[in-house]
Amino acid sequence: MAYDASAWEAVIGLEVHCQLLTRSKIFSGAPTQYGAAPNTQADAVTLGLPGVLPVLNASALEMAVKFGLAIQAQIAERCVFARKHYFYPDLPKGYQISQYEQPIVAKGHLDIELADGSVKRIGITRAHLEEDAGKSLHEGFAGATGIDLNRAGTPLIEIVSEPDLRSPAEAVAYLKKLHQLVVYLGICDGNMQEGSFRCDANVSVRRRGDTRFGTRTETKNVNSFRFVEKAIEYEIQRQIDILESGGRVVQETRLFNPDTGETRAMRSKEEAMDYRYFPDPDLLPVVVGPAEIDRIRATMPELPEAKKQRFMTQYGLSKYDATVLTSEAALADYYEDVVRISGADAKLCANWVITDLLGALNKRGEDITASPVTAAMLAGLIARIADQTISGKLAKDVFEAMLAGEGTADEIIKAKGLVQITDEGAIRKAIEDVIAQNPRQLADYRAGKDKLFGFFVGQVMKATQGKANPELVNRLLKDRLAS
Amino acid sequence: MSFSIEHIQQVAHLARLALGPEQAAHYARQLSDILEMVGQLARADTQGVEPMAHPLEMHQRLRPDVVTETDRREVFQALAPAVENGLYIVPKVIE
Amino acid sequence: MHSLTLKEMAAGLRARKFSARELTQHYLRRIETFDGQINSFITVTAGQALAQAAAADEKLARAEGGPLTGIPLAQKDIFCTQGVKTSCGSRMLDNFIAPYDATIVRKLHHEAGMVMLGKCNMDEFAMGSSNETSWYGPVKNPWDLTRVPGGSSGGSVAAVAAGLAPVATASDTGGSIRQPAALTNLTGIKPTYGRVSRYGMIAFASSLDQAGVVARSAEDAAYVLQAMSGFDPLDSTSVDRPVDDLVAGLNRPIRGLRIGLPKEYFAAGLAPEVRARVMAAVGVFEQLGAVISEISLPNAPLSVPTYYVVAPAEASSNLARYDGVRYGYRAQGVKTLEELYKRSRGEGFGPEVQRRIMIGTYVLSHGYYDAYYLKAQKVRKLICEDFRRAFEQVDLVLGPTTTDVAFKLGAKTDDPVAMYLNDIYTIAANLAGIPAMSLPCGFVDGLPVGLQLMGNYFDEARLLNAAHQYQQATDFHKQMPQAFR
Predict the structure, then answer these.
(1) pLDDT surpassing 60 at residue A270
(2) Where does residue B51 rank: exposed (0-12), middle (13-18), buried (19+ CB within 10 A)?
(3) Are residues A190 and A65 part of one domain?
(4) pTM here?
(5) Which entry of A341, C22, C57, C121 is 20 to 30 Å from A404 by CA?
């Protein structure tokens, strides 16, 4: 950490904009796919044509409720949409439909784990539904800006944390936890590069021991975990430098530049904003009754924390293994499929998934959902280890072949003739051959050079092209050498 | 309530309306009159009265999450003052 | 032909006395002959009208269609009509060809088979009570060309009053159907908020706007309102509730109908001659068996100040979309974004719209919201409660529609407050969301006087029934201005 944390304390709150995974927009039937040609998903409502009206998307509401339930928040029985006014070309109506005084979700929390292993509870002030704005493209037009409104009207929840975070690391831990949660819930694809999950950081600093908050700045456009950490670190240091040189921090909106790692004041936000919020007269109060909440609760998936605990008790996994395997819902599902289909030891399965599969996917830069080795395929391989058809060592080769698309474990074992030799007679024969070919080593071994045992094992394995069952080789060789 | 020219210009800026000095003076007078009339509201006793945003006490109806709209960019952009490569064009925006 | 009722017209069409094409041509000719005097149309859609008429004739030949098939209608230019300029009376939308149809346009033309003659002039964005704020120039009152027709639906009423259209759509945010209907001897009805879809009706003040009809009788209005009404999933504020049969209910006797006269509607400010005509009408209702009583709407005097907070607030927001970026007017030669906004809006909007945008911006801005907007919302509740109590005692509320007959063009253009007080009797119904109508009840010096009836929520059938019974006993509504017969 760059700044002197013994003298200064940072106070950080995050505002996260999370695009909801609906098919259509929050107030119209236009599609929400990323990457479409400009303005091809901007329908009459999105464009704010004269006379059009908004109607609320049921899925967007349901997803916001799911999020609220997942953070143990209060779900407002009655929430209200309000208009937030400002002029900007990517905001077609001159106002954003958002929620102000009565948001759908209030007073929740998320627990994060700190570096020392302790758990810290981060308050979530509120989460409200709103529509996304379009995009302004500043490059490629001489003296002009191009406006693409495809993104306008995409449903968002804005998740506002309490200023409970005290370091860039805590901020990142919170953000990662939140990211994991919304992806788990299936309400957001979590794609930060495409802007599905975006973060603004409110940062202030104060001298250790001060009870009052300092003046804060809001840094926008920090769209990766690493950038969040860098932007906050930069902002903390900048504010400390100002204060230490006797200056005053100005409350302002700043923009993070990922190329330089610096933040700068936004020119377009210089003037004080007066958003003139008032209840949107085109939309009526939204009522979510207890029965509706119960219905939504019943559709909630198992959440990461609960899943982790269950993996530890049900499968006897270590905390580390359970944490890794439950980091993503898709990975956890994959693991559980492997255990179920293979019928093998859960720990063995965990090792294969974490070490071999994730290692390979990492190297290939692939996601679990795009794994060339399906859960059924990996389970098939582990089953062959469990029933001793192949050795663990050979299994690694089979796994490589599966990754290369050569087929299922059984197909590869058959094609390569890799079935393990468990016939004691065949192994004894190999042992006799090895002993006959290595009289000097035999003499040395018998003279007390115990280390040579490994040599004989290796020779036997080599003679059987690695197919001999290692335990059998060990036992039979030991018997033979002792005789 | 009486509007100064300066205040009128502030409001006009919030509303993004270009007003010349004469217009601003004219509006200042008229808006002062209007707000004086509106000032009668202060007389009403509204202690404990719920503000009313909608004439009917109804709740928001929900729309099923279904895509119903197809691409009509060509039709819509035929209405636009300036378009290039499918984008609406405005003078350079400085962030 | 232009003195026929809609029912007679429909019968004439079915009996092949005339075709929809002939009927349409008759009105198109009248528009060509007379509209130069009154300026009631912004756009005449002759080609489209004749095509719709031909389609209607084919339907009629197959004995298909309904009671409105082939009957011409003029649309207020506030309703989006696909492929046809929809200006809302504003320079801002002078070049706007609507890319979609409003729900009521779909219902009236595509479903009911009516023929659209064109788009009627109106106050800019429906803001005005005299039709003098239109970018397309003022509309003249067919009863006296030196006087205003009322507003904002001035073009709609002038066209129907002059016999340039048998019936027209209109919209009413604070009286924009009833006040001009009163000043031009028409029957105009604003239904309950939520009864007619607002989808495609260009918004002025969303919580007050409601579409309706101006016609030459309650019966004509009933036919058209029936076809316009109904639930629309595209409008969140549309009410999902069956529509009463408005036509079938017209002939019920009104014996025993309880009618309340709010004393606040007969207080100082009401012209004595207007008062006399209204009281004469009360006498007719009594003869028809209605039971008359005096009631009180104590907060009614606060309607105008409440309205001039709520309506401009919503308007300032609804009109923020006109920014010169995606459609509409864009100022020439702008260098910066701020200039684009300010000049496009400064040049595209007229003074009345600018005034209201500024009032609305002001009352919503930081530090003033509670004193103005929130306060107005609370007073709105009080006004609404007045009506709730009134309808515990009476079935309908009766009063004048306006304080006086039509005033001279230009008389109030530089005095916004005097202009706003025109709507003193009509605004309360919008604030409460109840249905209300105006119908002719006599003349003062040859100028029409209107009578207002207000009903409880969704009581359109009762309103039209009472109006129709009154019109069976009187013939004021049958009078036409001399110059346009």
Answers:
(1) no
(2) middle
(3) yes
(4) 0.92
(5) A341
User: Do residues A408 and A441 share a domain?
Assistant: no
B52 to chain A, any CB pair closer than 8 A? The answer is: no
> Do the Cβ atoms of A148 and B69 come within 8 Å?
no
Residues A61-92: pLDDT tens digits?
999 999 999 999 999 999 999 999 999 999 99
pLDDT score, position B1: 62
Residue A246 scores a pLDDT above 70: yes
A131 touches chain B (CB under 8 A): no
A149 and B16 within 8 Å at the Cβ level: the answer is no
Which residue carries 């007389």 as its tokens?
B43
Q: Neighbours of B (≥3 Cβ pairs closer than 8 A)?
A: A, C
pLDDT reading at C216 higher than 90: yes
Closest residue in A to B13 (Cα) is A87
Min Cα separation B95/chain C (Å): 12
- Check B19 against C346: CB less than 8 A apart: yes
Are B15 and C347 a contacting pair at CB < 8 A?
no
Cα distances (angstroms) measured from residue A11 to each of A216, A230, A236: 9, 15, 9
How far B57 CA sits from the closest chain C CA (Å)? 10
Where does residue A66 rank: exposed (0-12), middle (13-18), buried (19+ CB within 10 A)? buried
Domain assignment present for residue A236? The answer is: no
Is some CB atom of chain A closer than 8 A to the CB atom of B43? Answer: no
Q: Give yes or no: residues A409 and A433 share one domain.
A: no
Q: How many CB atoms lie within 10 A of CB C457?
A: 21
User: Out of C176, C197, C316, C438, which one is annotated catalytic?
Assistant: C176
Q: Nearest C-alpha of chain C: how many angstroms from B42?
A: 8
**Residue C139 pLDDT grade (very low, low, confident, very high; cuts 50, 70, 90):** very high
pLDDT of residue A421: 84
Complete domains list, chain C, with CATH? 6-254 (3.90.1300.10), 303-372 (no CATH)
How far, in Å, CA of A301 to CA of A349, rounded? Answer: 23
pLDDT value of position A223: 86
pLDDT at A272: 61
Strand residue runs (E) in A105-196: 105-113, 119-131, 135-137, 144-148, 155-161
Give pLDDT tens digits for C152-188.
Answer: 999 999 999 999 999 999 999 999 999 999 999 999 9
CATH H-level, domain B5-43: superfamily: Glu-tRNAGln amidotransferase C subunit, N-terminal domain (1.10.20.60)
> Does any CB of chain B come closer than 8 Å to the CB of residue C269?
no
Question: How far does the CA of residue A93 sit from the closest CA of chain B (Å)?
Answer: 13
Instruction: Provide the CA A137 distance to its chain's centre, in angstroms.
Output: 29
Give me the pLDDT at residue A138, please: 85
B16 vs A281: CB contact, 8 Å cut-off? Answer: no
Which residue is catalytic, options C19, C40, C76, C119? Answer: C76
Distance CA(B28)–CA(A404), nearest Å, equals 78
Q: What is the pLDDT of residues C280-289, one digit of tens each?
A: 999 999 999 9
Quick one: which H or E segment has residue C52?
helix C46-61
Predicted-complex ipTM score = 0.97
Between positions 364 and 423 of C, the ones with CB within 8 A of B are 365, 371-372, 374-382, 384, 416-417, 420
Nearest Cβ partner for A54 among C236, C313, C316: C236
Is the predicted pLDDT of residue C411 greater than 80, yes or no? yes
* C156: annotated active-site residue: no
Quote the distance between the C-alpha of residue A480 and its chain's center: 54
Indicate whether A129 and A64 sit together in one domain.
Answer: yes
Q: Which domain does A465 fall in, by range?
A: 424-482
Confidence of residue A391 (pLDDT cuts 50, 70, 90): confident
Task: Please indicate whether residue C152 is annotated as part of the active site.
Answer: yes
Domain count, chain A: 3
Q: How far apart are CA C149 and CA C159, in angstroms?
A: 10
pLDDT grade for C64, boundaries at 50, 70 and 90: very high
Percentage of chain C exceeding pLDDT 70: 100
pLDDT at A117 (0 to 100): 86
- Rounded distance, CA C394 to CA C369, Å? 36
